[in-house]
Amino acid sequence: MKKYIFVPALLLFVAFSAQALLSGDEAPEPEKLQFLQEMRKPIFRFDTQKKPAQLKVLVFLNTRSAACREAIPLLVRLGGQYKERNVELIAVSTDTEAQCRELLREFPAFTFPFAREERPLNTQRYMAGSVFFPKAFIVDASRKILWDGEVIDLEDALESNASGRFDAAKQRKLSPLLSQLQSALRDADDDASSRIAADIFKLDPANAPALRLRLYSLESSGRAEDAVRFLGVRRAAAPAEARLYFMALDLVSRYPAFAEQLLPFLEAYPRQVPRDPERDAAFAWQLLLRQPLSAPATKCAAELLAPETAGTPGTLAPRALLAARAGKPENALRIQERITKLCRDQKLPQLPESLEMEQYYRELLRLRGL
User: Fold this and answer.
1) Collapsing DSSP states into helix, strand and coil, what is residue 249?
2) CB proximity list for 344: less than 8 A, separation 6 or greater
C-alpha cells in the first residue's frame, strides 16, 4: 500500500554539491564493495532479454541517519513490489561493518543486496561529497541515470516509468535545476531560490522536491503565511495534484493560526483531485488526526470516505476513527477487528497498531456509560 506521507521540508534540507552525478549522466560501475548479503558483481549487469526492460536502483545510505531508518520500510516495499517488473534494488553505505550489520538486524525484511565500502569511492563519485542521504539513482540497461533524487520520491519515479509516463528528457532538465536550488538554499540566497524554483515549476508545476525545498526556505525564514500562500498558487497551477493538499494540511497542522487558509484546499480536494480510494482514505486519516476539532476537516473526511471501497487496512482505519468520532465506538471496534483479521491473515506489519486501536475503541465503549 502506497503511503501518502510528506516529510516536513525542515527535515530534508542538507548541503549538496553541484558536481554530483545527475539524470542523463553515465553511471559508473561501483567498485571495491564488500557485500554483506546478496552479492551482485558487477552491479550493472543487465539481462536485455527481460521484459519490461530491467532497471537497477542504487541507493546510498547512512545507517546512523534517522531519515535512512525511516526510509527502509519504503525501500523494502518497493523492492518487493517492483521485483516482478525487473527492478533490482542495491544499497551501498560507507559506515562500518558493525553499523551496517546492526541496520540489517534491525530490519530483517531488507533482504536486497547490501554492500559497504571501506573508503567512500563510489559515494563520492555519485554524490560528490553531499550529505543528502538517503539518495537513489535509477539506472537503465544503457548505463544511463534515468532519475536521481530522494528516496521519498522514488516510488513516484518508478510508477511513472512503469506506466510509460516518465519523461527522461524533462528529467534531464529538472535534475541540474534541482541541484542549483539546493545550492541556493545552502547559500541562503532567497532570490536565486525563488527564480530557480520558478524555472522548475514551468517544467513540472508540482515538482515534489522543489516544493519541499521552497517550503523549507519560507518556513526557515519565519514566513509560514507566505508558505501557505505559495501552496495556494501552486494549487491553482496544478489543481489535480494530490501532494499539494497533503503538504497544505501538514503545514497548517504545524501553524494552527493559519487553519482557515486550509479551507480552500478542503473544498477543492473532493472536486479536483481524481478519486483514489487509498489516497483519499490517507487524506481523510490525516484530517481526522491533525484537525480533530475542525468541522470542515471532519466534513471533508466523511465525504471522502462515503463511497464504499474494497476493505484494506488503509481504507478501513479512517472509517473506524470517523465512527468513533461520530459517537459509535461499537461500529469503530467492529471495523477495527476486521482490520486486525486482515493484518493477521496477510501477515501485515500494521498488526500491533491495529491491536492498539482495538484497545482504544474498547475503552471508549467502557466509558460511554459515564
Assistant:
1) helix
2) 351
Q: β-strand 34-37 against 114-116: which pairing, if any?
A: antiparallel
User: What is the pLDDT at residue 286?
Assistant: 96
Tell me the one-letter amino acid at 315.
T
What digits encode the pLDDT tens for the residues 52-65?
889 999 999 999 88
187 confidence band (pLDDT: 50, 70, 90): confident
| Full-model pTM | 0.84
pLDDT at residue 3 above 70?
no
DSSP string, 183-238: HHHHTT-HHHHHHHHHHHHHH-TT-HHHHHHHHHHHHHTT-HHHHHHHHHHHHHH-
Q: Cell digits for 141?
A: 540497461
CB 249 within 8 A of CB 264: no
Quick one: cell of 180? 542549483
DSSP character string of 274-343: PP-HHHHHHHHHHHHHH-TT-HHHHHHHHHHH-S-----HHHHHHHHHHHHHTT-HHHHHHHHHHHHHHH
Choose among 195, 194, 137, 143: nearest CA to 171.
137
